[in-house]
Amino acid sequence: MVTLYHAPNARSLRVLWALEELGVTAEVKTVPFPPRVKQPDYLAVSPAGTIPALVDGDRVLTESLAICEYLAAKHGSPLLVATDAPERPPFLEWLWYGESTLMTPISRMGRVSSLPVRGEAIDVVLADARDSLTVRLKSLEQRLEGRDFLVAGRLTLADISVGYPLHLIAVFGIDVPLGTRTRGYREHLRTRPAFVRAAAIK
Ligand SMILES: N[C@@H](CCC(=O)N[C@@H](CS)C(=O)NCC(=O)O)C(=O)O
Questions:
Q1: Does the domain made of 88-192 have the CATH classification 1.10.1200.30?
Q2: Is 50 a pocket residue for ligand 1 (Cβ < 6 Å)?
Q3: How far apart, in whole angstroms, are the C-alpha atoms of residue 67 and residue 96?
Q4: Residue with CA nearest ligand 1 atom 19
Q5: Assigned superfamily of 3-78
Q6: What is the mean pLDDT of each run of 10 residues along the chain (202 residues)?
């Protein structure tokens, strides 16, 4: 059985969600956050100290999307889009959009808000991150026109990638305007039984 290192609301939620969609059981080890401060022995698993980490025998993976892709491939899942499928380029695009484009301003907000300082400079950084996120969400709203899922007409890892930051926006009450299609899409994803089960794991 694989072991997943997890913290509530961390990117390990993507992996838990993918595992639930796959119907695969993992040993889940929940660590205090951030582990580099609160559980330094975790650095022996993941030297960067980031969550998630997946251990499968001698193999250790520490990027949430790489872990999801590894698990989906291992279990021959349609959460992946085949390399020769016409939908492969948009699959890659939206898979990475979730982490690189959406998570960048969200992570900045989380990081800056957690610093023990307040003041005008912090407010400027937070407002800039919020503006950036607002603009970045526009391409998602456009993509969702006439679509329930981002690619291939079914749930793929691209939806799991993008669904996670949309979930964080809801959980942390991040004040960004969401388009009607984005709201509906987020609700559709967050009410999937597999997502509900994954999000309940603390
Ligand atoms: N690109 C990585 C990012 C991992 C990451 O930054 N995880 C956050 C939690 S969601 C973390 O562990 N932050 C704590 C830290 O940087 O010390 C992934 O997708 O897994």
A1: no
A2: yes
A3: 14
A4: 64
A5: Glutaredoxin (3.40.30.10)
A6: 97 98 98 96 98 98 98 98 98 98 98 94 97 98 98 98 98 97 98 98 95
